[in-house]
Specification:
- This protein has five helices and five strands; from the N terminus they run βαβαβαβαβα.
- By secondary structure, the chain is of the alpha/beta class.
- The chain has a single domain, classed as Rossmann fold (3-Layer(aba) Sandwich).
- Helix 1 packs across helix 5.
- The protein is globular and about 50 Å long.
- This is NAD(P)H-dependent oxidoreductase.
- InterPro entries: Flavoprotein-like_sf, FMN_Rdtase-like_dom, NAD(P)H-dep_reductase.
- Pfam families: FMN_red.
């Protein structure tokens, strides 16, 4: 059984990123262990705290370390990834030389209410994952544009074609992750 960690870059209630993540999770095997990692309450990373990290850092790092693979879903904020997502990446990659991300396969999806589909955030996140030594599935590329037209008021994906595409992509990710 594979343990999949799900990190949603948006911390907004009823976020579209959470809806995309849920549609991806629907494509995972029934026996998959799925953990949504809450990044909304992590204090800002501060290197001064490396020697005596707050409990929230320690628990987050332990949860990351316990996963076999990760699905990241992000919106685009000012042509980049959200601050909360970058903070989570930093916390679990520190102290220097003690990153718990390394070697864990990753799937990246981005979404936007515009047609650009969060493409810049998607690629910025991928760039960070390369540095963190996370093999990232290359195809299919998961850019979900005009997401407000594909989801309900709770952010959940309702468009059947999009739900199928995301579930099928998750199935491909399972095969990809098994290689590692």
């Amino acid at each position: 059984m594979t343990k999949f960690g799900i990190i949603v870059g948006s911390i907004r209630k009823n976020s579209y990123s959470k809806g995309v993540a849920d549609a991806l999770v629907a494509g995972l095997p029934a026996d998959a262990e799925v953990t949504y990692l809450n990044i909304s309450e992590l204090p800002l990373y501060n290197q001064d705290l490396d020697e005596n990290s707050p409990e929230s850092y320690v628990k987050f790092r332990e949860t990351v370390a316990a996963q076999d693979a990760f699905i990241f879903v992000t919106p685009e904020h000012n042509r980049s990834i959200p601050a909360a997502l970058k903070n989570a990446l930093d916390i679990a990659s520190r102290p220097w030389g003690q990153s718990v991300w390394g070697g864990k396969p990753a799937l990246v999806a981005s979404q936007s209410v515009s047609g650009i589909a969060g493409v810049l955030a998607h690629h910025i996140l991928r760039q960070s994952l390369v540095f963190l030594d996370m093999p990232t599935m290359q195809q299919p590329e998961l850019y979900i544009g005009n997401v407000a037209n594909l989801a309900d008021e709770n952010g959940q994906i309702t468009n059947e074609d999009t739900k199928k595409f995301l579930a099928d992509s998750a199935k491909q990710f399972v095969t990809f992750a098994e290689k590692f």
